[in-house]
Design brief:
Length: about 190
């Protein structure tokens, strides 16, 4: 009898510990999400491989709308719509093959590390999920920084690459002209 009672007690405690929602349920909340204009920022802002980003959600919609938030969801996808990089969070789901970080309402930021592979850009998607299981989303695209940011800043040294690049430019213009001329001659 005592054993039966503790089994009943265990089962009862068990129901308190099991997560309240299944994976498919939680992923399903995102399906009907509508676009919204809350703030979604990343640091740094340009895309680089193998780099850790701090992704922050700031829910600056009307305060009255913010009271019933239950979760924030975050995803990172490549231009081919494939999940990319890794979310450094405790709670994650595989939603339609996309690695999805799940933050509770007290967390508004997460670290994400980009993949070591060479992709041109990444789209970070954030969802705000409400108590009625409706959701809004926002996406930002991180592009690679333009190459010009790596040029030397010293003015004395700048003149040399400019001369080199202008003669390169002339060479590029001359090449098709040479081809056309040689076609005409032949
Ligand atoms: C999404 O919206 C469609 C049509 O409005 C509805 O049939 C469906 O049940 C909704 N799905 C979820 C997960 O809320
Ligand atoms: C990625 O970055 C980590 C830490 O900065 C470094 O240890 C590792 O070698 C890098 N991996 C590649 C493939 O560049
Ligand atoms: C990625 O998904 C978006 C919307 O879900 C779609 O508009 C776009 O065509 C997809 N791109 C590729 C390359 O599949
Ligand atoms: C995510 O789930 C799909 C099936 O829904 C499965 O094919 C895929 O391997 C899973 N991906 C990961 C990273 O677990
Ligand atoms: C939210 O998540 C953090 C980190 O996992 C945890 O410390 C905190 O207790 C959670 N808060 C709630 C209300 O679940
Ligand atoms: C992100 O990583 C940094 C450095 O490891 C850490 O100090 C910070 O607490 C992390 N932030 C979050 C939201 O996990
Ligand atoms: C990365 O891709 C760009 C073009 O998309 C290419 O110019 C560059 O050489 C590639 N870098 C590596 C390390 O593969």
């Amino acid at each position: 009898m005592a054993a039966f009672l503790s089994l009943v007690q265990l089962l009862f405690i068990g129901t308190l510990i099991v997560p309240a929602y299944s994976e498919t349920e939680r992923c399903g909340w995102l399906l009907n999400a509508t676009a919204s204009d809350f703030t979604l920022s990343t640091l740094p802002t340009a895309y680089q491989a193998n780099t850790t980003y701090l992704v922050t959600i700031r829910d600056n919609r009307k305060a009255s709308d913010s009271t019933d938030v239950i979760n924030y969801f975050l995803q990172a996808v490549s231009p081919e719509n494939a999940s990319t990089g890794e979310w450094k969070v405790a709670d994650k789901e595989n939603c339609s093959d996309i690695d999805t970080a799940i933050l509770n309402v007290t967390q508004q930021a997460a670290n994400w590390t980009s993949s070591v592979s060479n992709i041109s850009s990444v789209e970070i998607r954030a969802y705000i999920v409400f108590a009625d299981r409706s959701a809004v989303f926002k996406a930002v695209t991180l592009n690679k920084a333009p190459e010009t940011t790596t040029l030397p800043t010293s003015t004395t040294h700048n003149s040399v690459p400019v001369v080199q690049s202008s003669s390169f430019f002339i060479a590029v213009i001359q090449l098709p002209l040479l081809l056309v001329t040689s076609r005409l001659l032949s």
